[in-house]
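Name: AIG1-type G domain-containing protein
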Amino acid sequence: MRNYSTSYKTVKSRRSEKNAAGENPAPLPELRMILVGGRKGGKSSCGNTILNRHDFPTNTQTVSCCENQCRIEGKTVSVLDTPGCFPVTSEVLRTPSAVLLVVNVSSSFTALHREAIEEQLDAGGSQLWSRTVVLFSHGDWLGDTSVEQRIESEGEPLRRLVERCGNRYHVLDNKNQGDAAQVTELIQLVEEMLAAERRADVYKDDRLWRRVSSAEEQQNNVMLHRRNLTNQMRRRNRLSLDCWSCWRRSAGIWQK
Ligand SMILES: Nc1nc2c(ncn2[C@@H]2O[C@H](COP(=O)(O)OP(=O)(O)O)[C@@H](O)[C@H]2O)c(=O)[nH]1
Ligand SMILES: [Mg+2]
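Structure predicted for AIG1-type G domain-containing protein:
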């Protein structure tokens, strides 16, 4: 079977290393995915391939959002189909959802396409990009060309888009819905992305905690320093008093 996404292999090997190190958070019991992108890019078709059913009508304009679910390897997978150029709001960030940015790999991708997509995703804030995968439809069109070759040859707008999505991409051939492996690979990539995001959140909390505790430590050091200073002053005062009385005593002796 054809492997469209070579970058996925590296993701996979990193995943097993992290698992071995016990770094991965527990897998999510439910996976939510939102299909976004321009009109006729293949969003509804990709949704049908993921669900392995024909739930979303294709070749007709999708006018409102529509969600369907299926079970994949014991996990509930929800897919939300959206109308073309649907603005993704920060509501998405409330649930652990992935954004699948559908791009037709067979058509040319211009700076105008990129601007439209960026506008769509920027509505949800910068954090949304760390939850986004570029999902190329029309994988059958690629033939013997690898998706990496296609990204390279297509030019700057597509390369920049893929980079903004953390170089996460996957290809689906919607004419070959029976190919379950292409869906399994996509699910693994999405899970890895969401797990990385959760790890980053934990790390952020950890850094915050370290900052708070180092501030507390500094405060304690200041208090300790003050106490030491007071003790030193007291000792010095005692010493000078001792010297003074000693001097007076010796002066008295000398007077005698
Ligand atoms: N050959 C081929 N055609 C596709 C593929 N994905 C989608 N299409 C076709 O592209 C057209 C638009 O697809 P659709 O899913 O309705 O796009 P949407 O408007 O983004 O939801 C339809 O004619 C689909 O049959 C694919 O992987 N290969
Ligand atoms: Mg549609």
